[in-house]
Amino acid sequence: MLYRNLFDLQLLLILSLAALGKQFVVGEKRVRRLATPSFSIDVYEGLAKYVVSIRSRTPRTFFGDNHFCGGSIVSLTYVLTSAKCVMDKRKIVHRSRLILIVAGTPNRLKIVRRQTLHVPAKKIFVPENYTVYNTNNIALIKLKHKLPSDNRHIGILNLPRGPPTTGIFYKVMGWGRLYEGGPLASRIVFIDVMLQERVICQRLLHPFMPEMMCAGNLNSTLDEEPCPGDAGDPLMVNLTVYGVTSYHVGCGHSLLPSVYTDVWYHMKWIDEIMNSNVCRMYNPPTVYFFASILLCMCGEFHFNLNL
One of this protein's Pfam families, by short name (predicted)? Predict the structure, then answer.
């Protein structure tokens, strides 16, 4: 009876400390973010449709356990993400048939009938500078099948028409780890981070290249950062994607921002890729007219361009 009372007392003590926000980890020192990502039903229903889960083609054990990156829908046929998401450690692009895009599902672990879409990748585009100089961490994935335009669970983010504004808050959404060393989020979550001035980024991060941006709520108890599994997530405001999550160096650190790739910096490259597959019909009908029909049907004319 005495042991039972002692056990109950210990259990009560542990629960009380847990309620005060204390964290117990047995045999491991786990670093947490200062604040966990947020969940809002309005954001969940309103913005999740613009973000996709990038996965390996086949789940390991159950649906959703093969998620490794995020991405944003920038057209019915293209997804914008990070170059590191589509390449191996040797900087070799993954075969497109190994990558699956899952859209329309805010819950990473659930298939929703008439909502969840599974779309294989058809072609992957990565700037040459990423493979040669380890810069320009951005990629485009061309989908094998066009996303439906009449699905309310699918949305297209705008591409920027000008450079991003520093000193304001942007949203980052994805299914990355809830804290360093923690589990992946099941339902899509978001963080609000401030885009920092370039001079601050250069002081805190080395090297810091021209196409990079950094964001974080420095010196704040509300600091939130992307973590593993968030690479490729959009940095967005006003339904426009201004950045791509590249390096989550701020995960678990209160004084370091994370690095994002500047989408505006890469707009010429993005436009050239996305416009290279636009079908052009010739009038009056000539040999070029029939050739254009064949090109549109096969859709195999893709090429990469240097920045």
Answer: Trypsin
